[in-house]
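Take the subject:
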Amino acid sequence: MDKNGGETILVVDDMLENTTLLARILTSSGYKVQTANNGLDAIQSAQKAPPDLILLDISMPILDGIETCRQLKQNQRTSDIPVIFISALDDIENKVKAFQEGGVDYIIKPFELEEVQARVGKHLDILNLRAQLQSLNLELTMRVDELTRSHELLRERESKLNAFIKAFPSLSFVIDEEGRYLEVMTSEAGLLVVDSDQLLGRLISDVIPFQEAMQIMNAIQQAIERGTTQVIEYKIPIPAGGERWFEARIALMEKNQDGHSKVVLVVNEISERVQLYREIQRLANQDPLTSCFNRRHFMMLAEQEFQRAARYKRPFSLIFVDIDCFKKFNDQYGHQIGDQLLCSLVNLCKKQLRSIDIFGRYGGEEFLILMPETGADDVLQAAERLRRKIKNMDIETTEGKLSITVSMGVSSIDFSAGEILILDDLLKRADQALYAAKAAGRNCVKAG
């Protein structure tokens, strides 16, 4: 990323008015913009000066967006650049292809200014968090490597060990093969479970939880038997609540002729790194507006549940949900009110669904519900019950109380009956049923 200014975004579209409009939107938001009007030019531009993110149209001459994305992902220089497709193609097949080839998001034309800004901002935030995590990992690796190189001189320079260890914010121990603390060296006593003088002579299992103690003991045995440094991560609950995460490096110190051994165990706290990783995972899996699962993560979970249902011959159902006439709400009340309606719908659905059900935003005002262990009759009843709840919901907004209705398409498969389908087939059935519900006058449920 550009360290002296805004991030760089490459806009690829064969329509000059689209690239001009997107460039104006992104430039006004503080981003630097490159443009290309076909796939070949886009690939050359990205390889010459890699951008931080690419907005890519699908229907283009010379090389379409799907093939362009495939070639970008195959090139080491451009493979990690996130690609957001912006296309007028709103069919399932093109959307699935876009994500299969490595796209991170899909925006339907005509796009809304706020939506483009929000999605671009979200994916750039993920990039920034990943960069922070890589920086923390690099810093931690450099510190640990310094300790490891020093440990190779341990036998000759044991007298200097304490001074060396105390120069670092870490915990260091000498421990025998039974897991008994022989020496404790630290400048960060606050990281110890008990005072250092209370550790000497005690076993690891006496002072930390059993499962974590066994994890450390297994690593100690591996270090003694193989003579190689072992690296593990573990967590310890703290009295105030919560937990702290640590990384431990365990190296053989000595092994005498009688078979008795000692190891050096050096511990660094990595709670910040673990927390950052979890935050990255949350942002990568969550829709930024509604906080339900985004499409990518929903589809991953759906595929896992589908395979589980197939393996154990269990029923499996999907519900496609679409807010009726949602554009009219945006046009009449503005996008902020529209966002409130979306969030209210999500909150209601989360309360009504079972804990095993999976709920995600497919795009715009479309949502998907995955219902494991649910057959065709039960999913129709559940969808109808949810439809009525949504219809009767009063949504408090700055424009007064509003209400919405939804159209739903459901599809099911019972593997015990010998049906043979893939997840895409089930999605197409639900999508076709959704169109049938809209054709029937909206605010109803149809089965596919």
